[in-house]
Design a protein that fits this description.
isomerase; four-stranded parallel beta sheet; 12 helices; isomerase activity; Rossmann fold; 264 residues; alpha/beta; 15% strand; Iso_Racemase_Enz_sf
C-alpha cells in the first residue's frame, strides 16, 4: 500500500522512493550541476536537485562577503526542502576562507529549519583529510591571492600545511568555469612536483572533477575535488554507499566516511 508523509505526500512507486540529493548552488555557477548529475548517473535510485542563491564575485570585500550570510543560504535550503530532499549539500567553498565553524553553524541552522541533514564541500573535504591523515596538502584554486592566503591560514589552524599552492588570481565567480581542463591539469601537475600527501581543488565552478581520475593515475597522488567531496558526503548522509560512484577518482572507492568506518 502507498504510504503518506506528514504533508499528505503519497509514496508508493519507484520515482517517489528515489533518494534526492539537494545541492545549494552559487547563482553564477555553470559547472557543479552537470558534474553532480554525471557523477551519480549510474546510481538509478539517486536524483540531484538544485537551488541557487546570488553569488557573482569572490573576494574579501564586505559587499562580496555578504553574499554568504547564513540567512541567504538557509532561505535557499528551505526552498529545496519543498522537494522532499533527503540531504542538503552546500556545493560551495566559502567555508574555506570564512572558516570551518561558519559551515558547521550553517549546517546546524539548515537542520533546525528543515529537519534535513546538511553538509558542505569544505566540511566534506576536511573530513576526508582527517580520515586519510593528510597534513601536507597542495591547494589549487582559481581565486585571488587574498582569498588563497585566508584559506591557507585557516587550514594551518587545523594543522594542515597548504603552503604548496597555485591560484589564478581570478575574481570570478562566473569566469572560473572558463578555465579549461588542460589549464587545471597543468596546475595539478605543478603542485604534484613537490610531493604533497594530497591535492585539494577548492572551487565548485572549476572543471577539475572530470579529470581527477586520469590525473591521479598520472601523478600517483590523491586529488580531492570540491564537487566530488560534497557528493561523497551527501550520498552517505542519504544512506547510499559512495563507492557506487565509479570513474570520478579514488575518493569514492578508497575513503569511507567516519560513521561508515565505525559501523554506524
Amino acid at each position: 500500500m502507498p504510504s503518506h508523509d506528514a504533508d499528505g505526500f503519497t509514496r508508493g512507486n519507484a520515482l517517489d522512493e528515489r533518494v534526492r540529493l539537494g545541492m545549494l548552488t552559487p547563482s553564477s555557477n555553470t559547472v557543479l550541476e552537470p558534474v553532480t548529475v554525471a557523477m551519480t548517473a549510474d546510481i538509478p535510485s539517486v536524483s540531484s536537485h538544485f537551488q541557487r542563491f546570488r553569488v557573482t564575485r569572490i573576494s574579501l570585500e564586505p559587499h562580496d562577503l555578504v553574499q554568504f550570510q547564513t540567512s541567504h543560504i538557509v532561505q535557499a535550503a528551505e526552498l529545496l526542502s519543498d522537494a522532499k530532499i533527503d540531504v542538503i549539500g552546500w556545493s560551495g567553498t566559502s567555508g574555506s576562507w570564512l572558516g570551518q565553524a561558519n559551515d558547521e553553524a550553517l549546517c546546524a541552522e539548515i537542520f533546525q529549519r528543515t529537519g534535513i541533514p546538511a553538509t558542505t564541500s569544505v566540511l566534506a573535504i576536511n573530513e576526508i583529510l582527517s580520515i586519510t591523515n593528510c597534513r601536507k596538502v597542495a591547494l589549487v584554486s582559481p581565486y585571488q591571492p587574498e582569498i588563497q592566503r585566508k584559506i591557507i591560514e585557516n587550514y594551518a589552524g587545523l594543522g594542515i600545511d597548504c603552503s604548496i599552492e597555485r591560484h589564478l588570481d581570478d575574481p570570478g565567480n562566473y569566469s572560473f568555469a572558463q578555465w579549461s581542463e588542460d589549464q587545471i591539469a597543468d596546475l595539478i601537475r605543478d603542485v604534484a612536483k613537490e610531493k604533497p600527501d594530497a591535492i585539494m581543488v577548492m572551487c565548485t565552478n572549476f572543471r577539475a572533477a572530470p579529470i581527477i581520475d586520469r590525473m591521479e593515475q598520472e601523478i600517483g597522488i590523491p586529488i580531492y575535488d570540491s564537487i566530488a567531496a560534497v557528493v561523497w558526503k551527501s550520498l552517505f548522509l542519504a544512506g547510499i554507499d559512495p563507492g557506487l560512484v565509479k570513474g570520478w577518482g579514488s575518493l569514492f572507492q578508497n575513503v569511507q566516511p567516519i560513521a561508515m568506518r565505525e559501523g554506524n
